[in-house]
Write a structure and sequence with these properties.
The chain is of the alpha/beta class and 142 residues long. 34% of the residues lie in helices and 19% in strands. Keywords: Phosphoprotein.
Length: 142
């Protein structure tokens, strides 16, 4: 769009994070940046429930979660609804590459998270992203 803000592909986000302070920081930062955080959950069961009940544009998921299941199970559930997943984790396993759209390495700042989401949004809209923020990697096929 000329002389205006580009329409975002990512507007509604589900946060799946087992560390309460990280979850709170992400929720606050994304809300301030104009995203709608649909829910913040810390288990696979809660993530599956929200995916079934809500329209979601992106899932931000840690790999390690409370209870049974992990972030890769969340990504499988999201894939069934055609919702992309960006893993946010300290150590992204190789097998996650076939399940998510990319990975943002922990620790990261609020600014890096917002910059990563902007880059991902541009990528999802077919634009070329020449420079990625520190800690962000996209997986093949994205």
């Amino acid at each position: 769009m000329l002389f205006g803000k580009r329409e975002r592909a990512i507007r509604r986000i589900l946060i799946v994070e087992d560390e309460p302070l990280v979850a709170f920081d992400n929720e606050y930062s994304l809300g301030e940046a104009g995203y709608e955080v649909v829910a913040t959950v810390d288990t696979l069961a809660d993530a599956v429930r929200v995916l079934a009940e809500q329209e979601i544009d992106l899932v931000l998921s840690d790999i390690v979660l409370r209870g049974e299941g992990d972030g890769m199970d969340v990504a499988r559930a999201a894939a069934a609804k055609k919702v992309p997943v960006l893993f946010v984790t300290g150590n992204c396993p190789i097998e996650a590459r076939s399940l998510g759209i990319g990975c943002l390495a922990k620790p990261y700042s609020d600014k890096i998270l917002r910059t990563a989401l902007n880059a991902l949004d541009r990528k999802l809209q077919g634009e070329t992203v020449k420079r990625l923020p520190a800690g962000l990697s996209f997986y093949e096929g994205v």
